Amino acid sequence: MNSDKKVFAFKLAEKKEKKEEAKTTKWKAREGVSVAGCSGPDARVDDDWWGADQGYWC
Amino acid sequence: MPKRVLIVTKRADLHADIVSTKIATAGGNPFRLNLDEFPKHFALTLEFARGRWEGELTHLPTGEALSVSDIGAVWMRKKASFSFLSADLSPQEQAYAEGEMEHMLFSMLYSLDCYWMSHPVALRGASWKGEQLLRAARLGFCVPPSLVTNRRGDVDAFRAKLDGDIIFKALSSPTLAASEVALEDRSAGSLPTTRITDEHAAALDAVVELPCFFQQHVPKRHELRVTVIGDRVFAARIDSQEDPRTETDYRDFSAEIRYAAERLPPEVERRCLELVHSYGLNYGAIDLIVTPGGEYVFLENNPGGQFLFIEELVPELDMTGALAACLVQGARARERAT
Fold first, then answer.
1. How far apart (Å, rounded) are the C-alpha atoms in residues B128 and B34?
2. What is the pLDDT of residues B56-90, one digit of tens each?
3. Contact between A5 and B206 using a beta-carbon 8 Å cutoff
4. What pLDDT was estimated at residue B337?
5. ipTM value
6. Residue ranges of chain B that CATH labels 3.30.470.20
7. Are B77 and B304 in contact (CB under 8 A)?
8. Superfamily of domain B220-303
9. Of these four, B43, B60, B83, B97, which has the most CB atoms within 10 Å of its CB?
């Protein structure tokens, strides 16, 4: 893999993103969970106080 | 004065919207503190006198006020960045203001004598996934062989020992700390739990940068999301193996896999309750695997985990109602005690 990323997790994410980009259909939440409190990356924060789950997707 | 329920969260929180309504329906009186509007849209005055803190938190746009002595229960729902009147604070002013706000907020919270869902000390103590594995194993759960290392050779040896079937999981942030940096500085998206195969062989050299968490890949019959609310347990069966998108990490909500209510064996239910309560938590969202052989394998406990996606797909698991009832009962118990 030819990448400027240094951290393993970022290399994996880059690989995943390339696979996603190659797909012809766009990611879409299934019916019924689209508003399940998943507020998108900008609204997510690291939870030093609250715990580990950060609303990742849900 | 009836005790009230303080919900600490942020504006965009559907969980809190729904639970607030249910708290009111159950006869409680919620007060919502959105941290992303705090202190911008709130006034806070606290005075220490006669050996205790007294004062009020007021939501300025509505004028709704909460006396700290009226707080009978707190739901620590979600964190958010504070918001200030001036959007153009200098970086040092901003850093100082954030530090002061955190200090003020937690000084107030730690001074409360009330029911907690859950106390910040308990939340912090329960957050460490490595420690969770040890505790779960002591309670009798199966726990997959796991490895933390920044030595490439040790990853290879671990893979060889387990016939190559391992996963990588980001422990601190599945969004890879995206929220910690400015939008223009973001260089990666989120990363679900990832099965490590030969295609990742070259990338594995990068573990030298920082220790990474690997775990044996566990074959799944299905998965369970077990949500503990107070003394109640809500288990949802997730048929994650029905779709390749959810085989390794079920949290891909594009896949229309089946969710259903599940009755846990009593011993597994007891372990889940004991695990959550052992931290002093009144809430926990536990991820388990059920193997083809019927073993219950512990993955992790999320002390602030989401639950609405489960309830939306399995409406009979009325967790929003249970949570509201728990908070109202907690506040009332405090009322009777004072």
1. 26
2. 999 999 999 999 999 999 999 988 889 999 999 99
3. yes
4. 86
5. 0.85
6. 220-303
7. yes
8. ATP-grasp fold, B domain (3.30.470.20)
9. B83
Residues 16-75 of chain B whose Cβ lies under 8 A from any Cβ of chain A? none
CATH, range B145-216: 3.30.1490.20
B204 and A8 in contact by Cβ < 8 A? yes
Contact criterion met (CB < 8 Å) for A15 and B252: no
Angle between helices B266-278 and B129-138 (to 10 degrees): 130
CA-CA distance, B176 to B174, in Å (whole number)?
Answer: 5
Mutation target to probe the A interface, by most A beta carbons within 10 A, among B172, B227, B253 is: B253
Beta strands in chain B (DSSP E): 4-9, 30-34, 42-49, 52-59, 64-67, 71-76, 115-117, 146-149, 166-168, 194-196, 212-216, 222-229, 232-238, 259-261, 283-290, 296-302
| Architecture (CATH level 2) of domain B4-118+327-337 | 3-Layer(aba) Sandwich (3.40)
Phi/psi-derived region of residue B176, left when phi > 0, alpha when psi is between -120 and 50, beta in every other case: left
Count of Cβ atoms closer than 10 Å to residue B131 Cβ: 12
